[in-house]
Amino acid sequence: MTETILNWVNICVKKDEEILLLNRQHDNFKGWIQPGGKVEFPESFFEAARRELKEETGLTALNLELKGISGFTNPSKKERYVYYDFLCTAFEGQVRGNDHEGEPKWWKISELGQIDMQDDIRERLPLYRRKGSFERIHYWNEEKHCIGETKTILYD
């Protein structure tokens, strides 16, 4: 059986002690999330991150640092959802909303623990700000229909 891989990008946009998040209230990713989305073949991962950031926030990335790889693996179905996690600290343009993706808002890093977001995002956001890179993979338990194990590996 051949492995199926779907590629996505996440962008953590940081300005001083704030992070830009989107208030997403549709599909399975409700709550505050970072900009990102599916990589459209044949674009590169960096091109996808730059495109998604522009589409969802109006900002143009002037720098993108690949900080890590995260995602979900379903061993039973041989499926992987791979997220390329980028940090952006230099950009141009004005933040604007996108009705479909959610309204953007700058949040103080100290406030992130108080806002509605998925646990995976809450746990992954500090990884963007640390020195080095990371890998964070959730292994899906098909029988129980839930995450069976999560591995986080930090590289300095």
UniProtKB/TrEMBL annotation:
Keyword Cytoplasm assigned: no
A Pfam family reported for this protein in Swiss-Prot or TrEMBL: NUDIX
Residue span, Nudix hydrolase domain: 1-130
Cofactor: Mg(2+)
UniProt keyword Hydrolase, yes or no: yes
Single GO MF annotation: hydrolase activity
Keywords per UniProt: Hydrolase
PANTHER family associated with the record: 8-OXO-DGTP DIPHOSPHATASE-RELATED, GDP-MANNOSE MANNOSYL HYDROLASE
Protein name: Nudix hydrolase domain-containing protein
